[in-house]
Specification:
The structure is a single chain. By secondary structure, the protein is an alpha/beta fold. The protein has 2 domains: 2-98, Resolvase, N-terminal catalytic domain (Rossmann fold); 112-184. It has helices at residues 14-22, 42-50, 69-81, 99-132, 141-152, 157-164, 168-184; strands at residues 2-5, 28-31, 56-59, 85-88. Strands 2-1-3-4 form a 4-stranded parallel sheet, sandwiched between helices. Helix 1 (14-22) links the parallel strand 1 (2-5) and strand 2 (28-31). The two termini are 30 Å apart.
C-alpha cells in the first residue's frame, strides 16, 4: 500500500503517486490539502483501516505521515503493534521492523517538527522586520499563523481571506513567503 499527501489543494500529488507506483505500491491513498498535523485526514483514515498485518506502507517521505514528533511516535507504535511496516522512499535506511529503524523514524519526525517551528519563527521575524522598516502589513503574525492553519485544513484562498478580513492577494503573498521560507530550510 502507498500513502501520498499534499498540504494545499492547489498542489499536485502526481509525482508522489508515480514514485509509489514505481516502488510497487498496489494501491495508493492520496490526501489533498491536508496537514500532516491532522490525525483524521480522510484518506489516511481509510489507508489505516485497509492495512493488515504483514503489509508494508510505502511513503515518499516520513513527513507525509506525521507532522509532529508525538504523532510520529504514536503512528509508528500503532503500526508496529499491528504488524505493519513503513518504507520511506527518501529515507531508505529507516526500516521500521527494527528498534533502530523505529528510533530513526522518531528522529526524522523531530527534525520535521523543528523545520515547521523554524518556519513559524522566521515568518514572525520577517513580519517584525517589515514593520520596523515602515512597511506595515495587514497579515500580522497571528493572521499568517491562522492562514496556514486554515489552508492546511483545506480552506480555499478566498475562504481564508474572508475569515481573516483581508484581501486574497494579501493571503497569497503571506502564504507564498511562508512556503518559500519552509523550502529554504
Amino acid at each position: 500500500m502507498g500513502y501520498a499527501r499534499v498540504s494545499t489543494g492547489d498542489q499536485e500529488p502526481g509525482s508522489q503517486e508515480r514514485e509509489l507506483d514505481a516502488a510497487g505500491a498496489v494501491r495508493v491513498f492520496v490526501d489533498h490539502g491536508e496537514s500532516s498535523r491532522l490525525r483524521d485526514r480522510p484518506q489516511w483514515v481509510v489507508c489505516l483501516d485497509y492495512l493488515r498485518k504483514g503489509d508494508t506502507l510505502v511513503v515518499r517521505a516520513l513527513d507525509r505521515v506525521a507532522g509532529t514528533t508525538t504523532m510520529a511516535i504514536e503512528t509508528i507504535s500503532e503500526l508496529h503493534h499491528r504488524g505493519i511496516n513503513i518504507k520511506s522512499l527518501t529515507e531508505p535506511d529507516i526500516v521500521t521492523t527494527t528498534p533502530m529503524g523505529r528510533a530513526l523514524f522518531g528522529t526524522v519526525a523531530v527534525f520535521a517538527q523543528l523545520r515547521a517551528d523554524t518556519v513559524r519563527e522566521n515568518t514572525r521575524r520577517g513580519l517584525q522586520h517589515a514593520r520596523a522598516n515602515g512597511r506595515p502589513t495587514v497579515m500580522t503574525e497571528e493572521r499568517v499563523t491562522a492562514a496556514v492553519q486554515l489552508r492546511d485544513a483545506g480552506n480555499s484562498i478566498s475562504a481564508i481571506a474572508r475569515e481573516l478580513g483581508v484581501g486574497a492577494s494579501s493571503v497569497i503573498r503571506a502564504l507564498t513567503r511562508y512556503d518559500q521560507t519552509a523550502v529554504s530550510r
